[in-house]
Amino acid sequence: MSRTLLKVNGQSHTIDVEPDCPLLYVLRDNLVMNNPRFGCGLGQCGACTVLIDNRAVRSCTLPVSAAAGKEIVTLEGLGTEGNPHPVQKAFIQEQAFQCGYCLNGWVLTAKALLDKNPHPSHDEMRTAFESLICRCGSHVRIFAAVRQAAEQMKRSA
Amino acid sequence: MASKTVLSRREFVKDTGGLLFGFSLAEGAVLPQVLTAATESNPAASPNRLEAWLHIDRDGSVHVFTGKAEIGMGVETGLTQIVAEELDVPFSRVVLVMGDTSNTADQGGVGGSTSIAMGSKPLRNVAATARALLVRLAAKNLGASPDELQVREGVVSVKADPSRKISYADLAASGDLDEALKVSGEGFALNVEGLGKPKDPSSYTVVGQPIPRVDIAPKILGKWQYVTDVRVPGMLHGRVIRPAGVGAKLMGFDDSAAKKIPGYVQTVNKGDFVGLVAENEWAAVRAAKALRVTWSAPQQAFPEQKDLYQHMRSAAPKATKETVKKGDAAGVLASATKKVQASYEVPFQSHATMGPGCAVADIHTDGVSTIWSGGQKPHALQKGFAELLDVPRDKVRVIWVEDAGSYGRPGFEDTAADAVLLSQAVGKPVRVQWSRADMTAWGSKGPAVVCELAAAIDEHGEITAVEFTSHAFSGGEIMFVPASKDNYLGAQLTGIPNKSGVDEFAQWGVQAPPYVFPNVHAVSHIVPAFYDSISPLRTTHLRDPEGPQTSFAVESFMDELAATTATDPIEFRLRHLDNPRAKAVLAAAAEKAGWERRSSPNPNKSAGDVVTGRGVGLSTRGGTYVGTIAEVEVNRRTGAARVTRFVCTHDCGLIINPEALRGTIAANLIQSMSRGMKEEVTFDRSNVTSVDWATYPVARAHDIPTQVDIVLLNHPELPPNGAGEPSSRATAAAIANAIFDATGARVRQTPLTPARIKAALSEPQRA
Predict the structure, then answer these.
(1) A71 in contact with B at a CB cutoff of 8 Å?
(2) What is the CATH number of the domain that holds B494?
(3) DSSP assignment of B364-426, as one string?
């Protein structure tokens, strides 16, 4: 066990944890957060995605020690009910999901993508999302939401 | 009803914040109350009283108690609209309490695309009856006759003088809002009727509106709680070890290394069931890895995968059913001048739910046990777990909490049973979340199906006879209603043999459209299970149980017959249909797609590697009609195919919420495209070898068509019908038909992978 400093959604936490424990379990069990979510534990699906220094990262395979001291943002930290992030707003407007279990991956990957590339082409979008799974097949509305978010962010930029 | 102690799901969240779902646990403050509620004789659970279904709070909010559950398609929103409509209250005032066995009636849970079609009936009648009672109370209160009153947004007023008014909240607080209801049917068909008569659909103002789903915004904002987020005081985390293969018996285990993992608590063993519990999830994962388990050599119960379909054709059937015998198909075929025969093969498929199953069980052998599960039939789970624990049903409370989309009986039931067995053994609440491999490999499977078709064509090009024969694993080797102790994998490992199965057939005209031909003979065979119990290839319901498989065969064959007779594929279908709604969805699809009337394959193929084509499929399912057109591009050199556009026309009678419906259809098309083009469970002689997303590939971003056009055909004059499954059914055939149109190559085995398409391209094609 070692004392680790985690900065999550702007708050600092010092926790005693095995350094090789995946960040996902620390967020869910030690910090009792409901997002991100466990999907595969193999980095294959994206349900466990968080932003670390504004990059979309799979928390199920990332040792907590590698996230220490960095800025971690989870879905809950992206926006609030009163002030949702434009990406969240667009996903809500498009009613983009069915069960929604996968959505940490899609919403946070979309946020990281649009920050880096505000006008992604259809192919760039597909490439950015290729490593994510949505088992329900909500992709059509997800892509519509990302296009809408890009528009909204362009207008407000 | 005011004394009701059982809180709704949202009240848990709102008022106790933390009791079940959060961190700041007011330990013991509310949980005992919840458990106490289950020990009382609970009037809410018996459906013959209005108060069991509906309660109006002092603030005017309406709680409706239903045995239905939400598995991701929006029925919570649709049912809420139906209640708000009949009761004349704002949509936002209605809260559904779903799938809690202590305060909802057994409506059979979710299944068969029936939640709206059948499950809404009692809710509609209950709301109409509550409205009638409230108006009657208001009449007394306002000194007017009921005919002189109107209701707007939960307020009853005198039509002639709207200033004379009283709210539902005040009426409910002052009067007795209860009434005996006439109960009929059970399970999905459970209905109740009271004195209130539902509205004429022409007056609807809430039903039919594209109201945003109640769950989507909170999910996207990270405020939603799934069953994975249930946290109970003192809860441990469990893992169960799967056998080394089918038929492997536990020889022994050594947990000395597991015990050294910080957080390890206890190993549990009963028969071949071996698992452990730990203080947290990571410790459970590591300890399970450190647990050394010795198994006997697995049996070679499965054939080589390449021999699967041959095995299915030649196996002596476990059961056989003749489903259609019209005229003399065999005789006509025997003397036919022209005959077309084809055989179609669809593999085992995995639910492979987005999140592996998760459940929490708090078992009290001398009290009331509570199980939180996302299994879509909570009341069946209650029966099954009562049997497993050998206690009366009222000592078991199952609280449904949403999990990842279940689409049938995926194994969430088995996960919950693991939690039950572990909690029973250690005397503490236990949370179990399966691993990805547990879910993909050991979750139950959708059955593999082989269909053989033959048709006779006379000298005028008319189809004079059709023969259909299916060889399919049962849709219920494991009963899809998990209401007995032998249904669960964990229970089977403790030594309880599986007896829960039924024979469920892949049938012409049931899981595929009932085309009309002069002579038809249809026979369905059940292929015996490879292994009776504890098998990773045990089959059960996966979305639209045998529909996609049977429909792939029949809709492909219709296309082959159209091609053989040089007829346009839509025109061919229209000619052999007598149902006007089935015809209408095809006609509407053709119009939306700009369908060029001609036969397949496309005579104007490009000379390059990449060719394009279009294909159609029809789905009819319990009163819902769907026409699907796929447009594809195929690389003739590599065999790679991609759907570029879907057009889907959908008639499910009265539409409750068009936007939620469109979302469900769009997702249905993509998921069924994934099943048709990507998904195949792989196995060796003893094990399933599809264990993760690399070995069980599904559709990803690059596979998604650029355009999806959905046309809704609304029929307000008809009752609402199901939409959860029908648009899954014909997708694979529409794609295979489009591949044929593009290339002239017919692929008769799914998934439609580049290798299969390439192989078909190199085969000589029949005229």
Answers:
(1) no
(2) 3.30.365
(3) -TTS-EEEEE--S-HHHHHHHHHHHHTS-GGGEEEEE---S---B--SHHHHHHHHHHHHHHH
Instruction: Say if residue B628 is in the same domain as residue B711.
Output: yes
Confidence tier at B11 by pLDDT (50, 70, 90): very low
Closest CA to A77 of A24, A10, A16: A10
Chain A residues near residue B698 by CB distance under 8 angstroms: 133, 135
- Asked whether residue B44 carries a pLDDT value surpassing 90, the answer given is no
Check pLDDT > 70 for residue B144: yes
Q: Are B450 and B342 in contact (CB under 8 A)?
A: no
Cα-Cα-Cα-Cα dihedral sign, residues B9, B14, B17, B19? negative
Mean pLDDT score across all residues of chain B: 93
Mean per-residue pLDDT for B300-310? Answer: 98
Average pLDDT value for residue range B461-477: 97
Q: What is the mean pLDDT of chain A?
A: 96
Asked if A45 has any chain B CB less than 8 Å from its own CB, the reply is yes
- Helix (H) or strand (E) segment spanning residue B284: helix B281-290
Question: Which two three-digit tokens encode residue B88?
Answer: 């004349």
In DSSP notation, B553-611 reads HHHHHHHHHHHHTT--HHHHHHHT---HHHHHHHHHHHHHHT----PSSPSS--SSSEE
pLDDT at B10: 35
Strand order in B463-473's β-sheet?
A: B319-326, B519-527, B463-473, B449-457, B338-346
Q: Are B254 and B338 members of one domain?
A: no
Nearest chain B residue to A20 by CA: give it: B282
**Strand locations in B59-148, DSSP E?**
62-66, 94-98
- With CA atoms as reference, report the closest residue to B449 among B616, B763, B680, B621: B680
Residue B35 confidence (pLDDT): 36
* Domain assignment present for B147: yes
- Name the residue facing B216 among A97, A134, A136 (closest C-beta): A97
Size of interface A-B (CB pairs under 8 A): 186
Which of B493, B527, B561 is the endpoint of a domain?
Answer: B527
Question: Is B72 close to A41, i.e. CB distance below 8 A?
Answer: no
- Residues of chain A contacting residue B73, judged by C-beta atoms under 8 Å apart: 98
Do residues B417 and B479 share a domain? no
B368 and B242 co-located in one domain = yes
Answer whether residue B398 shows pLDDT above 60.
yes
pLDDT value at residue B765? 63
Interchain pair A44, B692: CB under 8 A: yes
> Which residue do the tokens 């005919």 mark?
B147
Average pLDDT over residues B595-600: 98
Task: Say what the pLDDT of residue B376 is.
Answer: 97
Instruction: Assess whether B214 and B288 both reside in one domain.
Output: no
CATH number for the domain spanning B69: value is 3.30.365.10
Domain shared by B190 and B320, yes or no? no
Q: How many domains does chain B have?
A: 4
Question: Whole-prediction pTM value?
Answer: 0.95
Residue B107 belongs to a domain? yes
Q: Which residue range is the domain that position B707 belongs to?
A: 547-762
Contact across the interface for A32 and B281, Cβ inside 8 Å: no
A72 touches chain B (CB under 8 A): no
Which domains are seen in chain A, by residue range? Answer: 2-78 (3.10.20.30), 86-156 (1.10.150.120)
Domain end point (choices B481, B497, B527): B527
Interatomic CA distance for residues A42 and A59, integer angstroms: 10
Residue B126 and residue B182 share a domain: yes
Answer whether residue B18 is part of any domain. no
Q: What is the pLDDT of residues B98-134, one digit of tens each?
A: 999 999 999 999 999 999 999 999 999 999 999 999 9
Is residue B689 assigned to a domain? yes
Render pLDDT for B691-746 as a digit per residue (tens, 0 to 9).
999 999 999 999 999 999 999 999 999 999 999 999 999 999 999 999 999 999 99
Contact A28, A47 (CB under 8 A): no
Residue B618 sits in the same domain as residue B682: yes
